[in-house]
Amino acid sequence: MRIRFYDGDRESLRHLFREADHSDEAIDGYMPKGEVLVADDGAEMVGQLLLIPTGEAGVEEVKSLAVLEPRRGTGVGRALVEHAAERARGRGASRLLVSTAAADTDNLRFYQRTGFRMLRVDRDVFGPDQGYDGIVIDGIPLRDQVWLDREL
Ligand SMILES: CC(C)(COP(=O)(O)OP(=O)(O)OC[C@H]1O[C@@H](n2cnc3c(N)ncnc32)[C@H](O)[C@@H]1OP(=O)(O)O)[C@@H](O)C(=O)NCCC(=O)NCCS
Prior knowledge:
alpha+beta; Aminopeptidase; seven-stranded mixed sheet; two-stranded antiparallel ribbon; 4 helices; 25% helix; 35% strand; binds coenzyme A
């Protein structure tokens, strides 16, 4: 498995973007931005990470990250985050941002295990108007968004 910069057609990675976001509308908005890293095992792409600029100097955002289910828990997500951190650092960035659903306690563990710390919570970001309707994760309604950051 190798992490590499991806310059192919991003539509062909939509199934991976969908693993991280239930809203195609939201995906359409950010998928063309920034740069994509993929985890490539030779036969297929088993993970992707989308890294975008934030508008704030020295700060980049991990906007989307997913690993195919059978390959989860084997270090692919961590490898993608470390490569993203290296690329951002190489451009002179000093901080990485990421957001996830407060309902997704698994993701909150993953990001804290990969060096991120809690920054703030934005309430009611995920609702029917944003393309997220009636979604429940581990018994918790999808509603609020948690921001985390990592110094580079
Ligand atoms: C989140 C995700 C990218 C993690 O990728 P991964 O390859 O499974 O993670 P890794 O194997 O690199 O794990 C790194 C650390 O996070 C922990 N972790 C990973 N998935 C976890 C989970 N579901 N619950 C708790 N901890 C988890 C691992 O245990 C490991 O910690 P350790 O060092 O204590 O062993 C992957 O689960 C995924 O694609 N999920 C669906 C899409 C998604 O939710 N994306 C994020 C949207 S914000």
